[in-house]
Write a structure and sequence with these properties.
- The chain is mostly helical.
- The chain has two helices and no strands.
- It has helices at residues 8-39, 42-66.
- The longest helix has 32 residues, at 8-39.
Length: 71
């Protein structure tokens, strides 16, 4: 049985669905950091915020690497 190939448009739509979940994950971690900053210690909250930012930057690098236009 031959595999069905996705068009570039279909592939991009799937990527947007997956990317949305990763963005929510990064935002959630940063929101947790903000909550921890207000409720417990500033250092613990700042650590969670930095972890969330690193997650978002990592996903950004992966997306740019995946969809880099080769000229």
């Amino acid at each position: 049985m031959a595999k069905k190939r996705l068009t570039q448009s279909e592939e991009f739509e799937i990527l947007k669905l997956v990317l949305d979940k990763f963005l929510w994950l990064g935002f959630g971690v940063m929101a947790l950091g903000l909550y921890k900053t207000f409720t417990s210690s500033f250092a613990a909250g700042l650590t969670w915020i930095i972890v969330g930012a690193v997650l978002l930057i990592l996903f950004m690098v992966l997306i740019v690497k995946e969809f880099e236009v080769i000229r």
